[in-house]
């Protein structure tokens, strides 16, 4: 699931910006090379003006990555999961997600530059939102059920410690049995 999120959102920024997240170049974990190959095989980015990609949960790791960036970046923050079952024993899983498009600012940026940056980031975030909803409606995103998206919250992202300004879209991704719990349970009966 986490790697599906990584791959899905990697299709938006510039390819170089996504590849730069692979700091080590290689790893003893086979999935590292597979994920890198997936990124290399992707078609042209959907929003190439987004120059960098940040994907993570740890503030320290995210901050270290953002500190090295210039320009506009896409930051994906993935949160907790919840799971519900109904009286028919169907399982519905939900994950909280946030997609932020932000721009690094210089210490000398004035209010007009901040407004321009904010407007630019909001425009890109709305483009990402439209793609995401289209993909969900088209069934291209197995971890996101379009009918379950009842609201998207778009809030300002102002992070002085990251020297960034932009916008964050918060939403929940709902899908049936994301973790294949029913199949795993059935395998125990064999």
Short description:
This protein has helices at residues 2-9, 15-19, 30-40, 59-67, 111-137, 181-188, and strands at 52-55, 72-85, 91-104, 153-159, 164-176. It has 190 residues and is of the alpha+beta class. β1, α4 (59-67) and β2 form a beta-alpha-beta unit.
Protein model, in words:
The chain is an alpha+beta fold and 190 residues long. The protein has one domain (2-188). The chain is built from six helices and five strands; from the N terminus they run H-H-H-E-H-E-E-H-E-E-H. It has helices at residues 2-9, 15-19, 30-40, 59-67, 111-137, 181-188, and strands spanning 52-55, 72-85, 91-104, 153-159, 164-176. It has a five-stranded mixed beta sheet with strand order 1-2-3-5-4, sandwiched between helices. It starts with a helix and ends with a helix.
Task: Furnish the topology, listing elements before pairings.
Layout: H1 2-9, H2 15-19, H3 30-40, E1 52-55, H4 59-67, E2 72-85, E3 91-104, H5 111-137, E4 153-159, E5 164-176, H6 181-188
Parallel strand pairs: 1-2
Antiparallel strand pairs: 2-3, 3-5, 4-5
Low-confidence stretches: none
| Secondary-structure element order, N to C | HHHEHEEHEEH
**Major β-sheet annotation:** 5 strands, mixed
Strand order of the largest sheet: 1-2-3-5-4
Q: Given the C-alpha coordinates, what overall shape results?
A: globular
Rg, rounded, reads 18 Å
Count up the domains. 1
Count of separate DSSP helical elements: 6
Helix content: 25-40%
Q: Which secondary-structure class do the elements indicate?
A: alpha+beta
How many strands appear in the DSSP assignment?
5
Distance between the termini: 26 Å
Mean pLDDT: 88
């Amino acid at each position: 699931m986490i790697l599906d999120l990584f791959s899905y959102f990697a299709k938006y920024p510039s390819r170089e910006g996504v590849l730069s997240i692979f700091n080590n170049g290689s790893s003893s974990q086979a999935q590292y090379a597979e994920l890198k190959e997936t990124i290399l095989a992707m078609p042209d980015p959907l929003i190439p003006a987004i120059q960098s990609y940040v994907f993570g949960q740890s503030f320290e790791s995210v901050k270290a990555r953002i500190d090295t960036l210039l320009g506009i970046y896409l930051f994906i923050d993935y949160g907790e999961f919840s799971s519900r079952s109904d009286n028919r024993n169907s399982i519905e899983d939900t994950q909280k997600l946030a997609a932020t498009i932000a721009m690094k600012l210089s210490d000398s940026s004035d209010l007009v530059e901040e407004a321009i940056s904010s407007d630019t980031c909001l425009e890109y975030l709305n483009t990402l939102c439209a793609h995401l909803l289209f993909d969900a409606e088209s069934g291209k995103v197995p971890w996101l059920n379009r009918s379950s998206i009842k609201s998207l919250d778009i809030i300002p992202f102002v992070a002085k410690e990251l020297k960034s300004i932009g916008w964050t879209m918060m939403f929940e991704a709902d899908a049936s049995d994301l973790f294949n719990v029913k199949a795993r349970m059935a395998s125990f009966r064999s």
